[in-house]
Amino acid sequence: xxxxxxxxxxxxxxxxxxxxxxxxxxxxxxxxxxxxxxxxxxxxxxxxxxxxxxxxxxxxxxxxxxxxxxxxxxxxxxxxxxxxxxxxxxxxxxxxxxxxxxxxxxxxxxxxxxxxxxxxxxxxxxxxxxxxxxxxxxxxxxxxxxxxxxxxxxxxxxxxxxxxxxxxxxxxxxxxxxxxxxxxxxxxxxxxxxxxxxxxxxxxxxxxxxxxxxxxxxxxxxxxxxxxxxxxxxxxxxxxxxxxxxxxxxxxxxxxxxxxxxxxxxxxxxxxxxxxxxxxxxxxxxxxxxxxxxxxxxxxxxxxxxxxxxxxxxxxxxxxxxxxxxxxxxxxxxxxxxxxxxxxxxxxxxxxxxxxxxxxxxxxxxxxxxxxxxxxxxxxxxxxxxxxxxxxxxxxxxxxxxxxxxxxxxxxxxxxxxxxxxxxxxxxxx
Length: 430
Prior knowledge:
Elements: H1 32-50, H2 57-75, H3 83-100, H4 110-126, H5 139-153, H6 157-203, H7 205-217, H8 222-247, H9 250-265, H10 272-292, H11 294-297, H12 311-316, H13 319-339, H14 344-379, H15 383-408, H16 413-428
């Protein structure tokens, strides 16, 4: 044999690329905490439907709140809680207590919405699932993630955890995902079957009577079936939010938050002159408005009404328009500071323009507060007036926080969010 024809073992023909081996994804495995929490969520979700019962809804609300906190803490017991999470939990607790105690002096039915918003916020904060690790200017993205992305991405996680508890660790590795999907398919088909039967019952009276007789014979309570139907979806959403947030890769999440921060920092491509001219136009319009309407705008400070006005008309007129102008100014300042093309010579001009707009916004807040105070001084407190006072306080503190962020580079979004949340939950207790 010719030894020259022997090729070394490490030889690879030119132009051929080794085929990479397919790495198998790890099998789904639910922790003991997830298995326990999945069963607890079945109970909690059904109790959630009882919260709309007119007789004992306050009792069921308290029970559900306790189970919600227990499940969240159980799934995040390995994550150290932050001071921020305690603050948000306090706000959530205040909202729930206001509903149980039926406190409606300031807010009517809004506490229910507040409680849900605080609940999602607390889960993200408690599990460390916020993009920046803490609440900040990425909170709008976190809100979308908490309300939609995380829960629906993990919508069958509860089913998989329950199936995992029944089939065991060994069988779980063989068919856990398939069994969970099969359980989900059975649940979906059952729901569709119930809908189809109800539609047919409405379409044909005889068929409806037959279904009712069958239900009576089997002692099936239609209300209970409806509650079970609703609780399946409610529990899947809640468990997807809580367990899905706990399962997130936190280092990867922080890296994603940094990428978003970098993307926002690269928005500065608009010529600075464009925003400087726009800001100057806003500043001139506001200054002219103050000059022309000075006696009208600042009359509340001296308790002098413009000619032809009564207190109620003067206090109400233009109040919410001033608040909306402040919101417009926030959007303008954000665009100026985020999208203007920066350079050493433009940096000071951009900062000055933003601070001028924020200063004028603060003046608008002071004017609105003076008009509101005159109204309260004459006619007393009402729920609507306290709501307006809270709104002014939030907007005014937002002006100060934004100005400190621009002028000194301080991270003021988080303190402002905490202030807004605490004051909102406090007014809910009144």
